[in-house]
Amino acid sequence: MRIYILRRLVQAVLVLWAAYTLSFILLSALPGDSVNNRIQNPEAQITPEAGRLMLEFYGLDRPVWEQYLHALWALLHGDLGFSLTSGRPVTHAVAEALPSTLTLTGLGLVFGLVFAAVVAVAANYAPWAWLRNAFDSAPALFASVPTFVVGVLVLQYLSFRWHLIPSVDNGTVLALIAPAATLGLIVAAPMAQVFATSVRTTRQRPFVHVVAARGASEGYIFRKDVLRNSSLPVLTLLGLAFGELIAGAVVTESVYARQGIGQLTVGAVDTQDLPVVQGVVLLSTVAYVLVNLAVDLAYPFIDPRVLVDGRTHRVTRSRSTRRKQVTVSVPVVAAVPRRLPAEVAMP
């Protein structure tokens, strides 16, 4: 387990370095930047001496490789540079926009999990076949709809027609529900599809039939056996879902006129503020890597029998049964029948 954690940490550092390097190369290859554009603008009336001092302050007068080494060394000390448009430190700009986006994405993830659970359960336990088929087809429908279309529809009906929520961000909880629900609908589609399939597969396993034959109710079987054995594939998707939340936040904050990382990114791209764009890319990469690392480390806590061997990527039993190895890959977990309590067991 310790080898696996160490390996995942090294991979996370390499991913962060690769993302930062790739973003620096791509942004440096773009023509122009806000400082040079301002210097070359005749209406700005910047003298050559003032232009030279501006380029020297931001390090734009150096070769690209020297800019990269200087930026990488500054990054190791927590310095992301200065904004080319406002002159403020990038860390301050990101820190001001981050809380609003974290609140939005966190609530959007909660909505997404609730939507996915409702659709998956209804697709398997609804009393009528046509209703089960309808819920089973719903994830594919929502997955094909772009984020901005969902946002516009939610805003049109909940705000302009039904007047249930404010149309712009006014700092209230009601103003947060619509954008969070928009993000939740987008990330719920793949999770609902995977969860519904996993629940359906788990219900067909022999140990479920054994528990049902002993007199346990459907609700008991779902809570104690089906839910736990069906949750690992959904847990795997949480990392990808968080990446979708970050990308969807840019569009959602623009549609609902919310201040956050999305609006900061749009403004930085529009003004070619390259340090801010690179800071947002790095922040998104850090969040994505941390969420995926947490998901990988959470597997043993979902089912204590599962331990991950970092050298062979195999799932093994706990120490008491370490000799018996199950050669299935994560996140498929070998299901073991539970012992029923006395009140539901057959005599």
From TrEMBL:
Q: Lyase among the record's keywords?
A: no
The GO annotation for biological process reads: transmembrane transport
Q: Where is the ABC transmembrane type-1 domain?
A: 98-299
Pfam families attached to this UniProt entry = BPD_transp_1, BPD_transp_1_N
Q: What is this protein called?
A: Peptide/nickel transport system permease protein
Q: Where in the cell is it found?
A: Cell membrane
Where, by residue number, does the polypeptide cross the bilayer? 12-30, 106-126, 138-160, 172-196, 232-256, 276-295
Q: How does it sit in the membrane?
A: Multi-pass membrane protein
